[in-house]
Specification:
Layout: H1 6-14, H2 23-31, E1 36-39, H3 47-56, E2 60-64, H4 68-80, E3 85-88, H5 94-105, E4 111-114, H6 116-119, H7 122-130, E5 133-138, H8 160-164, E6 170-174, H9 179-188, E7 195-198, E8 206-212, H10 216-227, E9 233-236, H11 240-252, E10 257-260, H12 266-278, E11 283-286, E12 301-304, H13 311-318, E13 328-334, H14 336-346, H15 352-367, H16 372-379, H17 391-394, E14 399-401, H18 403-418, H19 425-433, H20 438-442, H21 459-471, E15 475-477, E16 483-485, H22 487-493, E17 500-502, H23 503-506, H24 515-526, H25 533-550, H26 554-557, H27 560-569, H28 574-578, H29 585-607
The chain binds adenosine-5'-diphosphate and zinc ion.
Amino acid sequence: MNNKRPQDVLREIFGYHEFRGFQSEVITRVCAGGDAVVLMPTGGGKSLCYQIPALLRDGVGVVVSPLIALMQDQVDALAQVGIKAGFLNSTQTRRERAAMELAYLNGEIDLLYLSPERLVMPETQELLHQGNVALFAIDEAHCVSQWGHDFRPEYLQLDVLADEWPDVPRIALTATATVATRAEIRERLRLADAEMFVASFNRPNIRYRIVPKSSELSQLVEFIQTEHAGESGIVYAMTRKRTEDIAERLRSEGVTALPYHAGLCALERRATQERFLREDGVVVVATIAFGMGIDKPDVRFVAHLDLPKSIEGYYQETGRAGRDGEPADAWMAYGLSDVVGMRRIIAGSPDERNQTRLLNAMLSLCETGECRRVEMLHYFDEDTEPCGNCDTCLQPPVLLDATVNAQKLLSTAVRLEQRSQHFGAGQIIDILRGHSTAKTTQWHHETLSTWGIGADLGDTQWRVVVRRLLADGDLSVGAHDTLRVTPSGWEVLRGNRSVQIRESVMESKPRAATGKSRSQAKDALAAVPAADRKLFTALRAWRAEVSKTDGVPAYVVFHDATLLEIAGLRPTSLTELAAVNGVGQTKLERYGAAVLEIVATQSLYETT
Ligand code: ADP
Ligand code: ZN
């Protein structure tokens, strides 16, 4: 063990005066051989947490990182401060690898970067055993989470480190901080005894704004020209083509803008990165890969013209702005068409359910009427006060009181729970809208007292309400994406808390039912005694389903008058039902049981 003190290394090698946050505590623990899990936002200073212990402990610090493309940069950067480091990955020739293996065995390096794929190979582990490992640093540790935004199967095999090197300290690091991710890191990497270091994820100098898209390119140009003329920034877009088009438009407006995406050759990418780092006022228009591991402190803005796939991603990308602590902007233009586009991309992917969950949280951030920072930090399980430095705080949006709609939705979920049934958003929305499907009929959901009570909103709007309730913690997601009402949801049901939604996101009109059938439905209901309305509605919904499956018009199944009479009579046997006008023998045989079932269930719910 080197007998220098961590703060000497900090000063002498890295040239910094003080540790940031809990760097010092982490370093002390790892130097002493303890395990650690470190959660810090992008730019927080995670690297020093393992680099300094690697220098102070005997042996070589082994760093596992999935970002192969950055290893050369990281090694170069370390060389700049006089630290000898190397890497082993698939981009090297066999000879280069052999030379590096030798350097490791001879202890000529302090840090060795490895991809997870390489580390789990038996020959790599054999090699490591022949040398002396000072510590294992598992970077981007959230990649172990199957529910996260960056899952890498190889990470699951990193638990071997605990068995193979029980005496070597392990430190896992990530900028993704949800409680679920933390738990998974601990469990899957076998870090049960590790000390957990959680930094605040707040980046107070970044001002967050999410604006509705109208004419995206003009909006972007105006944002840059009025607020960031001559400053460095990153614009993120989804596709290569878009990055090129956007860069071209910016250039035509006098902005020094360069595209960056995986389709460019390595040389071009490097040249662009160099210009971005060295020149002032360069704007890079990039797909998400750009900016990872680039430590440019004075990026003054990060703009998004396409919706990020997750809050984790959004936070990481916007986190590349203002690392120097000076004011910086995170600006995004968002439109509903983006959502449609994203859903199309996600649909049918093997990971569809999970990606949908992540996207919904992102949408909820766009739609929130709350402080953006409160909402984001809440997503990372951190509480904070309204920040005064986001669009919501600076210019409070017009909010819509959606409490009644929320109550309708929550009470539907409660009624299903009372039946010991658990369903996802789609089914609950169908119930609210009175939209019969095979599945609503199968479960007799037409008989629920909340059936059709939300017909005034469209599917899209109900989904906004669901996202709001999920984001506020009024609903939680169970197995198979079923929704459950939480204690805080009960507070909404009891009227103790209100639910607010940005007016702009609820504006889009529900898909109009054809004017005729709508008014017909209204007229038909007006003639029904209030006490029978629910049952009548349930019977009609059932009829609609039968008419669809049997391929006959609804009135061929039963006339409205028949349903009305059934609703008034509430028959409890086939004999009673047979007495109703319009119920013949064949229909009695074919539909009798189903009708009695609806009547019985509905009556039960009305009395309880
Ligand atoms: P992360 O990996 O958490 O995104 P880095 O380790 O790359 O962050 O650190 C971000 C930047 O902060 C780097 O430029 C790093 O050199 C700098 N930095 C880290 N710790 C300190 C410190 N104690 N004092 C000053 N600068 C620091
Ligand atoms: Zn705010």
